[in-house]
Structures are given as structure tokens and as C-alpha cells.
Design goal:
The protein has 79 residues and is an all-beta fold. The chain is built from no helices and seven strands.
Length: 79
């Protein structure tokens, strides 16, 4: 089941560890905050680190491992 609920500009936090879906397969740990830059025609998201420049791709099948948050959320979600 795909979770296509994110839109460009949304801020999210990682709730479950997984790897990005780009060539780098970068591990994302719980608490990592990202912002959606673009949603492509397949529903996948190009994201950047919230308040940073690092970018990655995340397939819509991994959206269930994310939670939408306010961009100014200061909560520490790390394990």
C-alpha cells in the first residue's frame, strides 16, 4: 500500500530506520528531519535535510515510516 499523502514543502521526521532510495542508499535514523522538495510522477519524493542542503530520494512505499511535522518543531525524536 503506498502512502501518497506528502506534498511539496511538507516537513517530516523519520519514525523507523530505513535507507534512502537513491544511489547512495544512505541510512536514515529515527529523528532525522527532512523537507519535501518535489513529488515526481510516480509519487516518490525528492527531499532535503530540514534546515540543511543534503538531498535524497524516498519512494512512496517508505512514506509510512515518516510523520509530517511543523517546520519549526524542536522536538527531539532521536532514539
Amino acid at each position: 500500500m503506498a502512502y501518497n499523502y506528502l506534498v511539496e514543502g511538507d516537513a517530516v521526521v523519520v519514525l523507523q530506520k530505513f535507507n534512502t532510495n537513491d544511489k547512495g542508499k544512505t541510512p536514515l535514523v529515527i529523528g532525522t528531519k527532512l523537507q519535501v522538495i518535489k513529488i515526481d510522477e510516480d509519487g516518490d519524493a525528492n527531499m532535503k535535510q530540514l534546515h540543511g542542503e543534503w538531498t535524497c530520494w524516498i519512494f512512496s512505499s517508505n512514506f509510512k515510516k515518516l510523520k509530517i511535522i511543523d517546520k519549526n518543531d524542536k522536538t527531539d525524536y532521536y532514539e
